[in-house]
Specification:
alpha+beta; Rossmann fold; 18 helices; 516 residues; BirA Bifunctional Protein, domain 2
Amino acid sequence: MNTPDDLLKKVISHCKEYGFIYPSSEIYDGLSATYDYGPNGAELKNNLREYWWKAMVQMNENIVGLDAAIFMHPSTWKASGHIEAFNDPLIDNKDSKKRYRADVLIEDHIEKIRGKIQKEVKKAAKRFGESFDEEQFLNTNPRVLKNQEKISSIQERMKTLLDDEDLKGVKELIEDLGIADPVSGSKNWTDVRQFNLMFSTELGSLSEGANKVYLRPETAQGIFVNFSNVQKTGRMKIPFGIAQTGKAFRNEIIARQFIFRMREFEQMEMQYFVKPGTEIEHYEYWKKKRQQWHELLALGKEKYRTHDHIKLAHYANAACDIEYDFPMGFKELEGIHSRTDFDLKGHEEESGKKLRYFDPEENESYTPYVVETSIGLDRLFLAVMSSSYKEEKQKDGSERTLLSIPDFLAPVKAVVMPLTKKDGLPEKAREIMSSLQTELMCKYDEKDSIGKRYRRQDAVGTPYCITIDHDTLSDNSVTIRERDSMKQERVNIQQLPQLLEEKTSVSHVLKSLSAD
Ligand code: GAP
């Protein structure tokens, strides 16, 4: 049984060993919080992106795609509020010279108290054995209750301070809790100050008079500034959506937990433009629809939970996170926000251009409200990898490492293997490979024993291995072996393309989505 920490470490090293993810520019010892996707990683990422794109754009007549530039006019970020308010509270330790996010230091302190509660639970479970009732213990044990009270009071105090932007108060809280630098143990802290998360660079050479531009911290703004372009050229009628996938950049102070929090990452966002007053209905629709989309990934229903925001940002009137049970616990995977007309109005004011919609049915024009769905592709990748990674003991005592990635997402759908390298088997295998490779991603492998080849494919999540043996030459059939069950079946070569298409294509998943 893997502990959560073990699992994350194993996933990281498996990703490296099998060509899914490498540290970026590794020959120079890497660059913190940036990663490169290898051959298998690039395929899996493409498949995830394709599943999202098809579910959002292809399956919805009133949603269209966009591919906006990463660089945008600097005024964009003024209008969106990112220049003024896209900040994290930062604190330095004067002795270790290490920099931290003040709220993360406090959250880590809370985690330690939670750890104490867990210890009490474990101790009691051991003492009471089978008769132990965890819920009753959590609700009645005085030490647990005291620690829970402590957690609530810290959380409440931190929230109020951050909402009020009371940075002096945040420092006082850190001092009151006696929080020490996790590296040096020193409590010698600087004041807390706001740190803007946007990366900036200069457009044009300095001699020409350079202009400061930002790397976009979210893809959404490319959609907002193109609202009228898309609406008019596509003759879109409200309600309609614009979807986009692409890189976003944030100078995260603490980027950690592998690809969960990176400085360069990919988002998949959709802004749904609706008539003011109808936004909550659409918000509820998208909240449900996005959960269905996740369920069809088959990572396990129990791995998800939704977290409704109680305290909302000033521009939102409803918001929730879809959280996933990552190896480090439940964390945000996707956000669904009802953002009112905050962004379009902001851009209208800043640009002086109208971003309104004339509603022919109502014979009136208005600034639409927006419901947004926003998911991080890299976080989704981590969810798939960590739920698929398995170590299994075989009947003969040997072990196999397996990635039980859903078939339609697997980097390689099928591997074609001649049993031996002679007797015309490789030629027959190549023939089969050519007939399949125009339809799906498949590979050819003739090296090592069949058993070793199976293990190699299990480790990269290939759902089907097709073996060509001597009988194939006479009966025109092959053995197809399924990854998870390891069951083998004899199949006629003619049936292979249709059989693999049915099992591995994204279409049947999309059909289930539209049927709901
Ligand atoms: N347009 C709304 C928006 O950007 P967000 O909650 O800041 O909202 C949306 O980001 C999603 O982007 C998150 O749910 C997460 O999956 C992903 N994301 C955000 N910051 C990230 C980071 N530093 N590394 C990886 N993914 C990130």
